[in-house]
């Protein structure tokens, strides 16, 4: 088992700033190169934003827990929340725009995950969504 870091976030968009700062500091501590740190940050912001925007049926307080583990050639990120069950692996692939006129905002998060990660896993366990993104060090 490698080095594990974690952060607990509230269900609030303002937490995305804290998440970005945490990813930058953690990436620096773990010696992640700039390209990998960018991919991890982009995917985490997308995943947590989706949880905040779509994951909860109520206005109650909820926690989103992010774990980042660096173990040899892999960096794995786990996003855990108690929101509605949603398996991104079962979502349809988006229709990608072929021109600037066709570009729309949103709908590309899962595509980003599949593009930037080596592996993507989902499980629903103990009433929680557990999304794991595996990144490989040294892959451009």
Care to give the gist of this entry?
The chain has helices at residues 15-30, 34-54, 109-116; strands at residues 3-10, 63-71, 74-81, 119-125, 128-136.
Task: Please provide a written account of the structure.
With 140 residues, the protein is an alpha+beta fold. It has one domain (3-136): Histidine kinase-like ATPase, C-terminal domain (Heat Shock Protein 90), CATH 3.30.565.10. The chain contains three helices and five strands; from the N terminus they run E-H-H-E-E-H-E-E. It has helices at residues 15-30, 34-54, 109-116, and strands at residues 3-10, 63-71, 74-81, 119-125, 128-136. The chain has a five-stranded antiparallel sheet. Helix 1 packs antiparallel against helix 2 and helix 2 (34-54) runs antiparallel to helix 3 (109-116). It is globular and about 40 Å long. The two termini are 24 Å apart. The mean pLDDT is 87.
How are the elements arranged and paired?
Elements: E1 3-10, H1 15-30, H2 34-54, E2 63-71, E3 74-81, H3 109-116, E4 119-125, E5 128-136
Helix pairs in contact: 1-2, 2-3
The CATH H-level superfamily is: Histidine kinase-like ATPase, C-terminal domain
Quote the beta fraction. Answer: 25-35%
Unreliable spans = none
- Oligomeric state of this protein: single chain
Amino-to-carboxy terminus distance: 24 Å
Number of helices: 3
Order of helices and strands: EHHEEHEE
The strands making up the biggest β-sheet line up spatially as 1-2-3-5-4
Instruction: Write down the CATH topology.
Output: Heat Shock Protein 90
Proper CATH architecture: 2-Layer Sandwich
The first-level CATH class is given as Alpha Beta
What general outline do the C-alpha atoms trace?
globular
Mean pLDDT rating: 87
């Amino acid at each position: 088992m490698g080095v594990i870091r974690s952060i607990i976030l509230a269900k609030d968009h303002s937490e995305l700033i804290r998440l970005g700062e945490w990813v930058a500091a953690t990436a620096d501590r773990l010696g992640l190169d700039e390209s990998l740190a960018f991919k991890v940050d982009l995917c985490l912001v997308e995943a947590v934003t989706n949880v905040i925007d779509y994951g909860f049926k109520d206005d109650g307080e909820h926690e989103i827990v992010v774990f980042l583990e660096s173990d040899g050639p892999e960096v794995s990120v786990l996003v855990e929340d108690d929101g509605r069950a949603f398996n991104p692996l079962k979502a349809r692939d988006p229709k990608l725009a072929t021109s600037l006129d066709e570009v729309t905002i949103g709908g590309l998060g899962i595509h980003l995950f599949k593009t930037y990660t080596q592996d993507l896993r989902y499980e629903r366990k103990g009433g929680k969504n557990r999304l794991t993104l595996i990144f490989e060090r040294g892959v451009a």
